[in-house]
Amino acid sequence: MSARRPPIVGRYTAEEVELATRNHGMPLEALRYDVTPAGLHYLLIHFDIPPSDEGWSLGIGGLVERPFSLSVAELRSEDSLTIRATLECAGNGRGQISPRYPSVPWLEEGVSTAEWTGVPLARLLQRARLRDGVKEIVFHGADRGFDHGLEHDFARSLPLHEAMREEVLVAHAMNRAPLPPQHGAPLRLVVPRWYGMASVKWLRAIEATERPFDGFQQAVAYRFRRAQGEKGEPCSLMRVNSLMAPPGIPDFYTRRRIVQAGEVEISGRTWSGSAPVERVEFAVDGKWTNAVVAKPQAPNAWQSWHTVWQARVGENELACRATDSGGNVQPLDPVWDLSGFGNNAVQRIFVTVRG
Amino acid sequence: MSARRPPIVGRYTAEEVELATRNHGMPLEALRYDVTPAGLHYLLIHFDIPPSDEGWSLGIGGLVERPFSLSVAELRSEDSLTIRATLECAGNGRGQISPRYPSVPWLEEGVSTAEWTGVPLARLLQRARLRDGVKEIVFHGADRGFDHGLEHDFARSLPLHEAMREEVLVAHAMNRAPLPPQHGAPLRLVVPRWYGMASVKWLRAIEATERPFDGFQQAVAYRFRRAQGEKGEPCSLMRVNSLMAPPGIPDFYTRRRIVQAGEVEISGRTWSGSAPVERVEFAVDGKWTNAVVAKPQAPNAWQSWHTVWQARVGENELACRATDSGGNVQPLDPVWDLSGFGNNAVQRIFVTVRG
Prior knowledge:
- The structure is a homodimer.
- Chain A is 9% helix and 38% strand.
- Chain A is mainly beta.
- The first copy, chain A, folds into two domains: 14-234, Sulfite Oxidase, Chain A, domain 2; 241-354, Immunoglobulin-like, CATH 2.60.40.
- Chains A and B meet through helix 1, strand 5 and strand 14 of A and helix 1, strand 5 and strand 14 of B.
C-alpha cells in the first residue's frame, strides 16, 4: 500500500507477472481476425471483477434538470447502435521501456477490436437535460481498490464535447453477446479513438459536473510525465501504431519465429486515434519498403495492411511503421514516459529463415 | 532454439512475461462462478492458435478395421454429451518454485471449470473397430512449433483404458457455444480428471497404436523428474488442490488484500483427479480449522467450500488445504520437480485487516 513504487530495471517482478496473467494481451496471431473474439480481447482490470448482481442500475445525475436511473433491462430495450472499435491500453509497450514503471508489463499485445452494442451516451445526457455550466461528464465504475495508498472506485471523466460524440456508447453487448464479466458486465462505457482507460467498465453512475474531475485515475494516473512531480498531460487519443502477425512458427519458450525461405505473406493491423492511417512501411534489417494499407473497415476500427517478403536463409529483424493522415509517424525507439504510457515505437520481430 | 534452457532464480524473464500474457490464468475472484465464463478460463497454447479453416476434418485411423474421417458438421450432428469438468495446467504453481523451469510462470491461477459438449471418444473408437493389440490412442493437434530444438505438432496419447472412459469427449462446444479459437476450435479432446495437457486442442487426427507414443510432449515434456536426465514419471491425474477467492479489496500493484474487521465470508473451490475432496482446512496465521465442503456439483468438477473468519485488526496470512477421500493431502510447501509440474502446495494470501 506504499504511496510510491520505485522504477524497475531488468527482469520482471512477481507482481508484474501476476498482473500480466490477470490482465492478458491479445496473442498476436489473433491479428488475423477483423473482430477479436471476446476471450482473446486484451484486458485491464484495475481491481477485482465485481459481481454483476440482479439489481444493477445506472444512475444519471449531477448538474442536470432531470436525474434518472435505468435498469439493465430498460437500457437493453432502447434503440441501440453497434460500433466496431479498436481499443488499446495506454500502457501498451510499457514492458519494453527501461527503467520501467511498476504496473502491467505489456510488451505490445494490449490492443484489440470488438463490436460494441449499446445506447449513445449523448441520448441519455439529452434526456437528463444538462444544466448550463456543465464542463465534464464523470463515469463511476463498481470496481474498488487501492492505488498509491488511495482507496477509490475506478472513475474517469470526459470533456462535454467528447462525451457528446455520437459513437460514445453505454454498451451492454460485445460481439453481439451480453458483455462478459471481465469486459464490464452488465454495462460499460465505450469511447472509440481514446486509450482504453476512458471506456469505464462496470458502469454504475454518470455525473455531470462544472469543474474538472480530480479523481485518482484522472488527475494522478493516466498522465504523460517525463519526471516525478510533474503535473503532466492527460492520456487521450490513441497514438498512431501498427503490428504484424509474427510469420512462420514459434519456439515455445522464446517465441522466436522460424520461417521457410521463399515468398512469405506478411500482414497486420494499424490504427490511430486522431486520423486514418495512410502509410505502413515494412522493414527487413532496417531496409524500409511500402506495404499495402486497406481503407478503414469502420470509422473507429483498425485497418489491415499486407506485403510480401522474399525471405532468404539467415537471421532477420522485421519491423513495421505507420503514418497517419495527420502526419503522425511511429518512432523507431520508445519515447520516454515515466509511467510507460503511449509507447508506440515500431514492433520488431526476430526471425530465423531456413532453406 | 537451444536444446536446453537453464533454470531461473529470482525475478522473471521477458520470455516468461510474454508467455504469461498469452497463456493467461483465471483471475481468482472468478472462483465465484460454478462454471468459468469462457474468456476467463485459463489458457495454455504451446505454439500459435491455428486458423480454423472451412474444410477441417478429423481422421480416425491407425490400428483399426475401419478408418474414417468426420467433418465438423458431421460431428456436431451426432448425439452429444455435456460434461462439467475442471481442468488444471500441470505446471500450475511453477512460478512459486525456485530454481524455476523456464516456461509459463503460473502462480496458482491455472485452473478453471467449463461445460464441454461433444461425442464420447469411445463411440468413435468402437465405430472404427480397434484391432487386437491396441495399447494407446494418440491425439494429434494442428498447432506446430519448436521446443527444445525439436519441431513437432502438439500430440499426446492416452492408455486405451483411459481413452475408453465414458466422459472422455471429442468436444465441439464450450459453455453451450461453439469452441472459441483459443480453446481448440473447431474440435478438441477433453479428458476430465487429468491435467490439461491431455485435452489436446485443434484436434486433427486420432490414431490407435500398439506401442507407447514417443512424441516430445509425451516422452520428454510433461514428466515428473527430480533431476536432469531422469526418465521420470508421466503427469496424469490432477493432484488434490484448493483455492480461496481473495477476500476484501486489492491494492492495484501488489494485489495485497485489505479487509474490514469483523465477520468475513471466505469461499473457494477444491478438486482432485483421483477422488472426491472430503476435507478443506482454513488457516489464519498457521492455526487450522475445518471449513464446510459441499458435495461435488458434478462428477468431474470442482467442489465449493466456505467458512467464516472473525477478522481482527492487523496483518494476517490466510491459507487453505484439501484432503481427498483417498487420503491425499496438499503439502504446506512445494514438492520439488525439475519442470515445476504438480505443485499443489497450499495457497497463502496476505491480508491487512483494518478497523
